[in-house]
Amino acid sequence: MIRVVIPHHLRTLARVDREVELAVEPPVTLGAVLDALEARYPVLRGTIREHGTLQRRAFIRFFTCGQDWSQEPYDTSLPEAVVAGAEPLRVVGAMAGG
Amino acid sequence: MSGIRVLVGTRKGAFILTSTGKRKRWKVSGPHFAGWEIYHIKGSPVDPNRIYASQSSGWFGQLIQRSCDGGETWEAVGKEFNYDGNPGTHQWYDGTQHPWEFKRVWYLDPSLTDPETVYAGVEDAALFRTTDGAQTWQELPGLRAVKGPLWAPGAGGMCLHTILQSPSDPNRLYTAISAAGAFRTDDGGQTWRPINKGLVSKYELPDPEAEVGHCVHNLAMHPLRPDVVFMQKHWDVNRSDDAGETWHEVSGNLPTDFGFPIAVHAHEPETIYVIPIKSDSEHYPPEGKLRVYRSRTGGNEWEALTKGLPQSDCYVNILRSALAVDTLDSCGLYFGTTGGQVYASADAGDNWTPIVRDLPAVLSVEAQTLP
Fold first, then answer.
1. Is residue B155 within 8 angstroms of chain A, CB to CB?
2. pLDDT digit string (tens) for B121-144?
């Protein structure tokens, strides 16, 4: 199972605990995990990626295994540690505003 | 016994204030949607327990929430606001053209006759409508066709912030946009006309009497006289007696005619209220005195209402959607401040008391009179 950590406000919105687990068919790419997250919790559509264009919202970042994956194309395969469930993909609301 | 429900949108959530018709003791519920901006929250006139809220965040975008039980529970509903076709460009702050981009919903106006139908005013300015209880939204693009490329954002963005439905004609709607002006449709939103004749914006526009471009802050009307419309413009308080065809200024003896909200007494169509703010560069009350001004003559002659309101060291602002009236026999008024106070008057503004003092900055206030 793929583990995904989402920010506080989105956990409240989706009514989930801190971490969610998703079944994702290989290849486990960044886009496939986000697709699975939005399919399981439709209320999250548009909150992480823009409606229609699916562009990452400006103040959202994707971190995993100590690396920033925010600029990676959606078809990039995630690290083996994420595929194996050892590490979560973290969806982060960027700190902004002082 | 009748009751009052006051719906308050703030920078950090929604609050619901309830009281009996006496309006003495209040129960405060909230924050709902804690941490999110609630630009507007409003109930259906035909089903008061059906409430719609605009929930947004710079991080996570726009959501719409719906309650069918008076705000006890909520359901996230449709939040896709797609402009009809390519929306093109509008004027930017520097005079160049800028792409039309959806940012948020400023105003939700449930239909006067159908709880499933709601109008939404959005930034960048456009009008949307749902007929399925906010599951899906469709733009009424005829509005943007009215010289849209000449519209420009005000300081708060290019927002459609005011929607008035005519109770006597279901096909007639008024809208107001900063900074584009006032507009009216007489065919249910298919086609629109600018209704800005008589407005003068000598500090804001190269052509002070331009057809579009005026920074209208708010509109109000009495349901029994839907052709009489009152306007708080950036500067100037105006009225129209012919459904917006022509306007004339009624600022009269106001200490300043800058301000944001305007409201009409529930039972006296010529009694109107504004809350003067010192200027567009100093968004607080003149002299640090928070005063609501009432005219019983439809404008020009104004009296200050001060009892119960701070008369020194008060430097809050009152935003355009943050003044509301109830419809009890003794008309109640409510307004919220950027300092987090919500003040109430149970006697048409003669006396005021704070319901709450320490909410987040208040963005909007709506009052529901419950059976």
1. no
2. 999 999 999 999 999 999 999 999
Question: Residues B36, B57: contact at Cβ < 8 Å?
Answer: yes
> Which candidate in A15, A49, A51, A53 is best for mutational testing of the B interface (most B CBs within 10 A)?
A51
pTM, to two decimals: 0.96
CA dihedral A96, B156, B294, B292 (to 10 degrees): 20
Number of CB pairs, chain A paired with chain B, less than 8 A apart: 42
| Domain A2-93 sits in CATH 3.10.20.30 | yes
Of A9, A43, A50, Cβ closest to residue B57:
A9
Domain extent listing, chain A: 2-93
A49: distance to nearest CA of chain B, Å?
9
- B86's CB contacts (< 8 A; 6+ apart) are none
Chain A positions touching B58 (Cβ under 8 A) are 59, 96-97
Query: What's the full length of chain B, in residues?
Result: 371
Question: Is the C-alpha dihedral spanning B353, B357, B361, B363 positive or negative?
Answer: negative
Whole-angstrom distance, CA of residue A72 vs CA of residue B162:
41
Residue partners of A42: CB distance under 8 A and separation at least 6 = none
The structural domains of chain B, ordered by start, are 1-30+215-371 (2.130.10.10), 36-212 (2.130.10.10)
pLDDT in tens, A12-53: 999 998 899 999 999 999 999 999 999 999 999 999 999 999
User: In angstroms, what separates the C-alpha of A60 from chain B's closest C-alpha?
Assistant: 7
